[in-house]
Design brief:
Layout lengths: L10 E5 L4 E2 L2 E2 L1 H14 L3 E3 L12 H15 L4 E5 L5 H14 L3 E5 L8 H14 L4 E5 L1 H4 L5 H7 L5 E6 L4 H10 L3 E4 L5 H6 L4 E4 L6 H13 L2 H20 L5 H9 L16 H14 L8
Parallel strand pairs: 1-4, 1-10, 4-5, 5-6, 6-7, 7-8, 8-9, 9-10
Antiparallel strand pairs: 2-3
Helix pairs in contact: 1-2, 2-3, 3-4, 4-6, 9-10, 10-11, 10-12, 11-12
GO cellular component, one term: cytosol
Function: Catalyzes the condensation of (S)-aspartate-beta-semialdehyde [(S)-ASA] and pyruvate to 4-hydroxy-tetrahydrodipicolinate (HTPA).
GO biological process, one term: lysine biosynthetic process via diaminopimelate
Length: about 300
């Protein structure tokens, strides 16, 4: 099979949390997270994504967060900076700044709220790709953005040199199959629990939420699937399934994830409004899930 554009981002990418303390970004805890991920063997870190509460970051915080991650990483793993926006001009500004700071690639979420036409999606991503020299990963997540980037639009985007990847979070295996079968883009799962099904039809990895908590297990799942060891891949999938579901199902991401991190003694601090703490019944379900998984919990949420 010919090598796909963006294939050097195959494997586990982790959408990292933005830790907050007293209303400010906690860069000490950020460093701890990064070192944990690097030590675990994660391929790529994705700061300032949904999991990083990017909609609550000021422009200055957004720029500095990405810069700090790049400096801490210091070339040891890849950094795919979350620099998308519902404003093309703002996406360009954020992406140019990240590229100047040394980001390896950019994650570009579909413009949200304004719900552009398919031509609007095409022109938006085209403008970003043509004005920066780092690879672009198109992030298709209609559940967050209100509208889906259709396969035909992604096929058109695949013809633009700088667009090399798609983070596919539509929840549709058919969509993944169509993209893999008709383009040379690298497809990355945007849903932890769909990583194995998507890799079975040609996706090459995942941009993970659960990887913040259990990166080694996510790496083992991806590796087994890539090597064709389906027995091991299925075993890992079923082990991870309930945990992955709860990371996204008990409440809006990253609410359950931040609760889980606190429970296991790796507290990543407070949430920023309008995100609020996990309610007690859901917190107890999460604690039970962690315990069933074999993760010891220490702190009460």
């Amino acid at each position: 099979m010919p090598q796909r554009k963006g294939s050097d981002y195959a494997g586990l990418s982790v959408a990292i949390i933005t830790p907050f303390a007293d209303g400010e970004v906690d860069y000490g805890r950020l460093r701890e997270q990064i070192e944990f991920q690097i030590d675990s063997g994660t391929t790529c870190l994705v700061p300032a994504g949904t999991t990083g509460e990017s909609p609550t970051l000021s422009h200055d915080e957004h720029d500095r967060l990405i810069s700090e991650v790049i400096q801490i990483v210091a070339g040891r793993v890849k950094v795919m900076a979350g620099t998308g926006s519902n404003s093309t001009a703002e996406a360009l500004r954020l992406t140019k700044r990240a590229a100047d700071e040394g980001a390896d690639a950019t994650l570009q979420v579909a413009p949200y709220y304004n719900k552009p036409t398919q031509e609007g999606f095409f022109q938006h991503f085209k403008a970003v790709a043509e004005h920066v020299d780092i690879p672009v990963c198109v992030y298709n997540i209609p559940g967050r953005c209100g509208k889906e980037i259709e396969v035909g639009t992604i096929q058109r985007l695949s013809e633009i040199d700088g667009i090399t990847m798609v983070k596919e979070a539509t929840g549709k295996l058919d969509q993944c199959s169509a993209i893999v079968g008709t383009t040379d883009l690298t497809v990355l799962s945007g849903d932890d629990s769909l990583t194995l099904p998507m890799m079975s039809v040609g996706a090459e990895g995942v941009v993970s939420v659960a990887g913040n908590l259990v990166p080694t297990d996510m790496i083992n799942l991806v590796r087994a699937a890539k090597e064709g060891d389906m027995a091991e891949a299925m075993a890992m999938h079923h082990k991870l399934f309930k945990l992955c579901q709860n990371m996204l199902g008990l409440a809006t991401n990253p609410i359950p994830l931040k609760a889980a991190m606190a429970m296991v003694g790796r507290d990543t601090g407070e949430l920023r409004l309008p995100m609020t703490a996990l309610e007690t019944p859901e917190a107890e379900k999460l604690r039970e899930t962690l315990s069933a998984y074999g993760i010891e919990t220490a702190a009460k949420v």
